[in-house]
């Protein structure tokens, strides 16, 4: 119903009722009917989402709202920021670009693991280009009725245009997170329901012209680029790809500093050490570390966050919350054996690398080995990768030696080992040589996979057997104390190795 019709009705109906009343007609049934109609109308509007309820509106506003996010407020990601800014300069300097006849950029794809700041980059891009920012996420399109997805896409573009006009802005950025949900490969069959949505997106992108105002730029984010339909990646669509990686140490430091800004932190806290210990963390996880540390400080009734709070927060984010579930003695022994297996292999492969072995009834991991920070590597040798596989396999190998069989506690380890083997294969570091992975049959790959893993598993087992004396002594301490420091552990190591077995 149009707004003016509603207004006319609201004006006319009471007058009509009064008139009928005056000429002696019984108006009560009319009024009852009117109230029922009103209730029904409101219910329908509410269900179809026509009336937005406060909270949802707030959420939407928060999502769209830029809060003036700039590139400076994003930690690390220097090369992603640089590439993005270069691409955006095309949008800003449109006159020069068109003089040279350069095709404007319509779509930028940000790829990388979750929580690395892709959404932040898109928001900063909008700030940088003084653009309106309109956002949607692929997950919104899950289980939408046929046709609804396509119309949501149409609305996004419409919203970008009307908001830009209203706010008097020349540029508009449309951000689509989790694009793989709607942009998955179309030949798959089960993706069918998203076809119309994807087609609508492609149509809208083709309808972007550089001469029109606002200039529209799409930014999409995914952590599964290989799943995207090739039509999306063609020139004139998402043809700029920017990799957003996990932050390196400097990046982690920067992110920690940013999230420490609004928190009271003891002056002697060494954030650099926290950055070192949080190897492999995403920006979102680092934000969590800071937040959890603050919670620990508050729980302790202190005014400021200490180094210990931060260390505990790292453990928590890494392993999940402490659980109440107590491991049985038998489980504890098995976990101790498993973790010592990892630790011994790590110490043999990279002497000095173990910083702590611990049993702890936390989250999914009942125990863990913490490694000293290593220099971050960008290139890996075959020997290094094989060493990492041995460390991963050593937990299960130790269980086999002591129990004659494995438990279910090694599935993560195996996954890790398989990932490394995969890296070796794609880098030409296996006996297959340099291969095009698409051309090799699954059978050949599985055979090579099994060969590598069996060989290394055997080597790992022999290594552990050679150090059985270290094993036994460390096991006693670990079982008693539930904790073995790297130095304590190395002590056992030196003593036992000196004695010929
Ligand atoms: N580089 C960073 N600098 C500062 N904070 C960051 C950074 N990366 C992530 N964060 C923190 O993590 C939160 C989530 O980041 P963001 O939503 O941008 O990640 P994303 O890559 O879009 O993740 P997803 O793929 O899960 O959507 C941010 O709100 C911020 O608090
Ligand atoms: Zn393990």
UniProtKB/TrEMBL annotation:
Highest taxon listed in the record's lineage: Bacteria
User: Which keywords appear in this protein's UniProt record, sorted alphabetically?
Assistant: ATP-binding, Hydrolase, Membrane, Metal-binding, Metalloprotease, Nucleotide-binding, Protease, Transmembrane, Transmembrane helix, Zinc
Q: Which cofactor does it need?
A: Zn(2+)
Which SUPFAM superfamilies does the record associate with it? FtsH protease domain-like, P-loop containing nucleoside triphosphate hydrolases
Give a yes or no for keyword RNA-binding in this entry: no
Question: AAA+ ATPase domain spans which residues?
Answer: 104-248
Parts of the chain that traverse the membrane: 12-44
Q: Which Gene3D superfamilies does this entry report, sorted A to Z? A: 1.10.8.60, P-loop containing nucleotide triphosphate hydrolases (3.40.50.300), Peptidase M41 (1.20.58.760)
Do the record's keywords include Hydrolase? yes
Q: Which InterPro entries does the UniProt record give?
A: AAA+_ATPase, AAA_lid_3, ATPase_AAA_core, ATPase_AAA_CS, P-loop_NTPase, Peptidase_M41, Peptidase_M41-like
Family annotation (PANTHER family): ATP-DEPENDENT ZINC METALLOPROTEASE YME1L1 (PTHR23076:SF97), METALLOPROTEASE M41 FTSH (PTHR23076)
Family named by the database record: Belongs to the AAA ATPase family. In the C-terminal section; belongs to the peptidase M41 family.
What is this protein identified as?
A: AAA family ATPase
């Amino acid at each position: 119903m149009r707004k003016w019709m509603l207004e006319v009705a609201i004006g006319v109906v009471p007058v009509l009722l009064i008139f009928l009343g005056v000429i002696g007609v019984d108006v009560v049934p009319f009024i009852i009917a009117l109230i029922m109609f009103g209730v029904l109308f409101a219910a329908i509007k509410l269900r179809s989402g026509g009336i937005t309820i406060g909270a949802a509106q707030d959420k939407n506003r928060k999502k769209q709202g830029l809060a003036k996010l700039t590139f400076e407020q994003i930690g690390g990601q220097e090369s992603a920021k640089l590439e993005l800014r270069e691409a955006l300069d095309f949008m800003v300097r449109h006159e020069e670009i068109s003089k040279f006849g350069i095709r404007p950029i319509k779509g930028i794809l940000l790829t990388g693991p979750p929580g690395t700041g892709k959404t932040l980059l898109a928001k900063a891009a909008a700030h940088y280009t003084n653009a309106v920012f309109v956002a949607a996420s692929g997950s919104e399109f899950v289980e939408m009725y046929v046709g609804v997805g396509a119309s949501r896409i149409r609305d996004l573009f419409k919203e970008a245009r009307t908001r830009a006009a209203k706010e008097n802005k020349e540029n508009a950025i449309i951000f689509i997170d989790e694009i793989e949900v709607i942009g998955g490969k179309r030949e798959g069959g089960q993706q069918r329901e998203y076809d119309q949505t994807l087609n609508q997106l492609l149509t809208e992108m083709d309808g972007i012209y550089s001469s029109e105002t606002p200039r529209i730029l799409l930014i999409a984010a995914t952590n599964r680029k290989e799943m995207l339909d090739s039509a999306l990646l063609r020139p004139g669509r998402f043809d700029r790809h920017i990799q957003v990686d996990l932050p390196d140490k400097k990046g982690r430091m920067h992110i920690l500093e940013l999230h420490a800004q609004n928190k009271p932190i003891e002056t002697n806290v060494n954030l650099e050490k926290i950055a070192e210990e949080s190897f492999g963390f995403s920006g979102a996880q680092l934000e969590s570390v800071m937040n959890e540390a603050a919670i620990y400080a508050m729980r302790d009734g202190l005014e400021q966050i200490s180094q210990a709070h931060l260390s505990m927060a790292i453990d928590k984010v890494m392993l999940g919350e402490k659980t109440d579930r107590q491991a049985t003695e038998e489980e504890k022994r098995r976990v101790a054996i498993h973790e010592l297996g990892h630790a011994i292999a790590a110490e043999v492969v990279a002497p000095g690398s173990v910083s702590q072995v611990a049993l702890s009834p936390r989250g999914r991991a009942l125990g863990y080995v913490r490694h000293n920070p290593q220099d971050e590597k960008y290139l890996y040798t075959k020997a290094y990768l094989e060493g990492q596989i041995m460390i991963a396999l050593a937990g299960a190998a130790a269980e086999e030696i002591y129990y004659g069989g494995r438990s279910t506690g090694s599935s993560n380890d195996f996954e890790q080992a398989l990932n490394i083997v995969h890296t070796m294969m794609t880098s030409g570091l296996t006996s297959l040589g340099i291969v095009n992975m698409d051309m090799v049959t699954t059978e050949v790959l599985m055979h090579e996979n099994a060969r590598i893993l069996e060989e290394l598993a055997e080597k790992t087992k022999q290594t552990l057997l050679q150090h059985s004396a270290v094993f036994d002594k460390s096991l006693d301490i670990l079982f008693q104390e539930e904790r073995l420091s790297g130095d304590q552990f190395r002590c056992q190591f030196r003593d036992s190795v000196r004695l010929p077995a």
